[in-house]
Design a protein that fits this description.
The protein is mainly α. The chain has helices at 3-25, 41-51, 53-70, 78-90, 102-127, 145-172, 177-180, and strands spanning 28-30, 36-37, 136-137, 140-141. The chain has 7 helices and 4 strands.
Length: 186
């Protein structure tokens, strides 16, 4: 990658991290111990689809720290900071695996990035937050931390992922497709 493209990638990354953090503040519903529906993932997914896996992971890593520090992160120790923020938002960079694979790559990359974030949060929820599991959630008795974490985290992350995928696919049907596919940087 030329020096010019490297500077462009870093500048876009900084803008997309900031945009993700701003979108993270625009929440639709909020769960008591964290978790909400937002488009926070969208800029990171778009960035990773444009610039690839390595750049996407790096931008997600930066967002993970920023979101915990600025976004009012809730944690019970360094393990939950890593699992719920740093690793989870770094995993959005997995969308970069869809780079260079055309329109199907946009959808597959988006799903991979969102799934990576969910898996990190699900495991953290079951292993660290499980002791705070209520006896009942959504009218269902809760006896298993993994099921509770699946429901508690899966609902908002699933809704956010669906919204992110819908926006990426909508953008892919417009002239913005060239931008998403990174045709302007090759």
């Amino acid at each position: 990658m030329s020096q010019h493209l490297r500077v462009r990638m870093l500048c876009e990354g900084a803008v997309f991290v900031a945009l993700a953090e701003i979108l993270g503040f625009l929440k639709i519903g909020h769960l008591p111990n964290g978790g909400s529906v937002s488009l926070l993932m969208l800029p990171m997914i778009v960035f990773a689809l444009r610039w690839g896996l390595g750049s996407g992971l790096l931008a997600g890593f930066a967002l993970g720290f920023l979101d915990f520090l600025v976004g009012g992160g809730i944690a019970i120790g360094w393990q939950s900071i890593l699992g719920d923020y740093v690793i989870a938002l770094t995993a959005l960079g997995l969308a970069g695996l869809g780079r260079g694979r055309g329109l199907p790559g946009l959808a597959v990359g988006t799903v991979l990035g969102c799934l990576g974030r969910f898996l990190s949060i699900w495991v953290t929820g079951a292993t660290l937050w499980g002791e705070y599991m209520p006896e009942e959630f959504l009218g269902l008795p809760m006896t298993n931390e993994w099921v509770y974490s699946l429901l508690y985290n899966g609902i908002p992350i699933g809704a956010s992922s669906a919204a992110t995928l819908a926006v990426v696919l909508a953008l892919a049907a417009t002239p913005a497709r060239r931008y998403l596919l990174g045709h302007d940087i090759q």
